[in-house]
Amino acid sequence: GNNEKALEDYNKIIEIEPETTEFYQRRAEFYQKIGNNEKALEDYNKIIEIEPEMAEHYQRRAEFYQKIGNIEKALEDYNKTIEIEPETTVYYQRRAEFYQKIGNIEKALEDYNKEIELEPEEHVWYGNRACFYSHLGNLEKTLEDLSKANELNCYNDSIYEVCAETFQKTGDNEKALEVYNKLVEQNQENYEGYFHRAKFFEKTGNYEKALEDCNKIIEIRPKPKNVIDVFNHISSMPFFLRFLVHAKLDNEENALDDLRVFKEEKEKEESKAILPQKKQETPEGQKQTEKQFDFKTELKQIGTELNLKYLVKSLEILFELESLENYSKLAEFICKLDFEKVPSELNPDVSKVFSENYKNFSNLSEVLQRDGKELFLIRAKLCFLKCFYEVFSKETEMKKDTEKKAKLQQNFIEIYFKVSEALEEEHARLQKEAAVQARNEIISYISHTLKNLFASIVNPLEILRNGKTYDELTIQKTLRGMEISSQIVSAMNSSLKGTLDDFLYDAQTPKSQSTLKNIFTDALVYSLTNLFDTTYFVIFSRNYLQTKEIFTEAKTEWNKIILNKNLDEISGFINKFFCRFEFDLGKAAELTIGNEKQSAVKLLTLFQEMFFNAFKYAGFIERENRFVEIVFSVTELKFLIKIENAFIPSNQVKTTGIGLAVIGDFAEILKAENKVKKTESTYTLEFSFTNLWRKR
């Protein structure tokens, strides 16, 4: 996969320049991203072995230790940075933030105070301490430090910026804009003020205003006076910001022109950027590795904020990848799709990209129905990125300059993983939001249903109490309401508890086990019994048993059948009164599972919800076209439940939603693949999970 290729590239780079700590740093970060902390630590240690007196190396290892939860080692390295450079305020700042995160407020304040002691005329340290006090809720001290920071900074840029960002975070954009306006009003030639306001307009979707400020920034932008100006990219960043604005307005030609200028300006800045740092001894005959700016931050923003077309064209321009031209056309094809009228066939080249890189990709219509438009477009970017990685690797392999090749590979690897990581985070956020929304809807439905159920229990009891007469029918209805309420609560409760290991234990431990055939039979019985309930499932009951005579005949026969629970008799009954019914348990019939960790009951709950959903919706079809088919199959590695039933896509019956929620919860517990396929006449559920009964 791409991880293996990336690691191979990092190893090649280090082989070429084994004493360059920057490459070990990049590989360490890569190891962290793929979860190999042991290898990451080896590289951090190697960096310190090569340059033991560089405080920044201990700083990075401290951050690594902090991320993996080794607080003691992290503190040792934070202390070491200050031991090496006791007059460098930034290391006190980092240690203060560390203390703050672990809750040592007293020590954090000592370090914030030390920063100000070392550089009492530097407004930034007062601003940092103000943020610290703000976090503690100490308004008086916060205002005191902000005031001091304000005094020391004649234009108040950073203070205004902090204030405006605070208003933005709290959702008060009106006040944030007031602050940005004041920042500009103080000085009409204030490059920083216009730049921050332009970013604010861009983030809040006021693109026309953002464009006005971008034009002003480019008009008044100063020439870099020192390395700090160069490092802050004051020449290049206005063009990148304007590129974003043009892209969001889909002014493609203007956007790409600005991106090209941004690249040129940044390359000029790169050539001038000789940043102050400790001189390093370079072994004789070995070139000093020059600092190289990259496009990670910009491409992360492009990848997450712009559409696929601009991601492809940006990579094409920034990396001069001629072979991306074809992908650029494919990206435009995706961006022009009318998602309301999904084409039956995609461009063959697009289909190839998706079939190779998109998980469970069958056809666009099915994927859109399953994932939704937003998630699909994010996954599309990830698919194309994987292709670009392969393209880039092939192109760089052809270059003769080994050192340049190493730098290009390093740069692109980092960009690939940074952009991919950002897209994966966005993908996970959207999935989580969708899950929360779905769960909230289900809870809303359930609470409404339970409210009605409880009313149906309490009201008859009130009537009985007031009338003081015994009524068998009322008692039966009341008990049935209590049973249904209990089933809803139990199903939700059981589907939210347990682990895959619990199921493995009960499947592998020979203690009072039930066969899957018996569990299957019980689930059928419980599901079909619900179809006789004319109080709580009246719609579904009437679909099947349409006259009083048919209902009475079926109920009488059903009461006899459930005494024996003979699967063949149950199957015959379903075919007679409900629909065409076929099942095949195969080798799964004799598999057994215990209930020490409630696995047998959980499977019963899962099967019952699956079966009941199938019978509910098959009932809306004409009698001659109704069917339900259930197949269990087991292989060495997988257990598959496949259920097909007759279906009308336009039919939307309002129920509690409990069935789909329970099935989804069990899919998470069992780490199952839960595939749904809908056609004009058929609903298919394929639920597969690891073979719990395989010998381990």
Description:
The protein is mainly alpha-helical. Helix content is 68%, strand content 6%. The protein is built from 30 helices and seven strands. The relative contact order is 0.05.
Question: Key terms for this structure?
Answer:
30 helices; two-stranded antiparallel sheet; about 700 residues; five-stranded mixed beta sheet; about 70% helix; 7 strands; elongated; mainly alpha
- DSSP helix fraction: 55-70%
Oligomer: single chain
Structural class: mainly alpha
Average pLDDT metric:
78
Q: What's the alpha carbon Rg, rounded to whole Å?
A: 33 Å
Tally of strands: 7
Number of helices: 30
- Overall geometric form: elongated
Beta strand %:
5-15%
Biggest sheet features: 5 strands, mixed
Low-confidence stretches: 274-293
> First CA to last CA: what distance?
28 Å
Strands ordered across the widest β-sheet: 2-4-5-7-6
Summarize the structure.
The chain is 68% helix and 6% strand. It is built from 30 helices and seven strands. It has a five-stranded mixed sheet. The protein has a two-stranded antiparallel sheet with strand order 1-3.
What order do the helices and strands come in, and which of them pair?
Elements: H1 2-16, H2 21-33, H3 37-50, H4 55-67, H5 71-84, H6 89-101, H7 105-118, H8 123-136, H9 139-152, H10 157-169, H11 173-186, H12 191-203, H13 207-220, H14 227-231, H15 237-248, H16 252-272, H17 296-305, H18 308-318, H19 325-335, H20 348-357, H21 364-397, H22 402-467, H23 472-495, H24 500-508, E1 514-515, H25 516-530, H26 538-544, H27 548-564, H28 567-577, E2 580-584, E3 592-593, H29 599-618, E4 627-634, E5 638-646, H30 658-669, E6 673-678, E7 682-690
Helix pairs in contact: 1-2, 1-22, 2-3, 3-4, 4-5, 5-6, 6-7, 7-8, 8-9, 10-11, 11-12, 12-13, 12-15, 13-15, 15-16, 16-18, 17-22, 18-19, 20-21, 21-22, 22-23, 23-30, 25-29, 27-28, 29-30
